[in-house]
Model the fold of this input.
Amino acid sequence: MRHYAHLCPFALRIFSVLLMIISIFLEKKQGFSNSHSDNR
Done:
């Protein structure tokens, strides 16, 4: 039980970092498509 409790914050940190990376990737993708439509 103690070991699991120690692992919880670590997993939360990884999850938050993954969410951040995904959000940045989506933002870049949106910006790229937006600039592409602007060029048209």
Q: What stands out?
A: The chain is about 95% helix and 0% strand. The mean pLDDT is 81. The radius of gyration is 17 Å.
